[in-house]
Amino acid sequence: HLDAFGLNAQLLLHNPNTFRITLKHMEGDIAVEGKHIGFCSSDTTVHIMPRQDFSLPVNIQLKPGGLLGSSLPLLTQDSILIKFDGFVRIGRSGIFIKYNINHEAKMPIRF
After folding, report:
1. I want to staple 15 with a disulfide (CB 3.0 to 4.6 A). Which of 5, 48, 95, 103 is the partner?
2. Percent of the chain beyond pLDDT 90?
3. Are 56 and 15 in contact (CB under 8 A)?
């Protein structure tokens, strides 16, 4: 009986701030088209330059049937709605805060 399976990925993100920050931790739930499919986390410390894109290695734990259970209808769409609901631990000058993130975006599907 399989409880979950894992994927390692790189997220491409952007720091919109005018100052350098450090990200120490990230975690949250992932939903596709409103259906919870798993959990995403990272414990990698990343030093992020101001107004720059950066890459964050993450571990994604997917529920069996979470994405696969609804994948057939997704194949007929040109985009899907992905939602992340969680938090990051960010800071500067040795002071860190927990910053909640609730973000969703339509992502194009390319075959």
Report:
1. 48
2. 59
3. no
